[in-house]
């Protein structure tokens, strides 16, 4: 596969689209495996509602970095944690260690094609720190507010990249990504970061935000509609969002984050930290 021009596009706009990165076999395998994972899941053991707008005090989220855990859409569970909708349509996302703990997701994450692409964009020691399957359920898939990924996964210097793979067509109607092209060149707006709360404990949130809240101009966002199988590279400082999915079609994606470990320090203040499970995985040396 030819990746010519991808690096320059990423540097110019803060994102780049690679069509047909995944073939139909990969897409079917990921979707089928995800369906199996949900079928085997007991909702009574997983009570967390996912939100992109609130800091978290939920230990279930804070300790999910080396596990496969389930985060539900608002309204999917009642106050007792009883499922209110079909199980396959209840989950907002699964995270954050699919790339290591599940063989199907591991195979795609550490494929030779993925390694070739990351070399093409100039990553010296790319390391996967987290992975997610995001559903964007039809009719109820929540919005993801404008943000920069480096707010949540900070490195010094900043060398974070998101790998976002569409398992279905992503359109304006079902909640595709939107970007402010070139916004990565200004760094983290307002020095906004989500960090571990140094005063965390009973009744106190596990994370907190530092820096200033910045409002972005909606008129500057442009949609990135892509066909299934496309891979979108997302620079850690580019401002992006996705809207609610009010359509009748889902928008499944598999996504993970890598940072270039070469001459880079991963912040000990990030909510996500390495554990003995070794889910922070170097791409070039990790086998499928």
Describe the protein in words:
The chain is built from six helices and 16 strands. With 288 residues, the chain is of the alpha+beta class. It starts with 5 loop residues before the first helix and ends in a 6-residue tail after the last strand.
Write out key terms for the chains shown.
16 strands, four-stranded antiparallel sheet, globular, 17% helix, alpha+beta
What's the story with the biggest beta sheet? 8 strands, antiparallel
Count of β-strands: 16
Low-confidence stretches: 50-57
| Structural class assignment | alpha+beta
How many helix segments? 6
- Give the overall average pLDDT: 92
Give the % helix.
10-25%
- Reading the helices and strands in chain order gives HEHHEEHHHEEEEEEEEEEEEE
Q: What general form does the structure show?
A: globular
Report how far the terminal alpha carbons are from each other.
19 Å
Share in β-strands: 15-25%
Rounded to the nearest angstrom, the radius of gyration is 18 Å
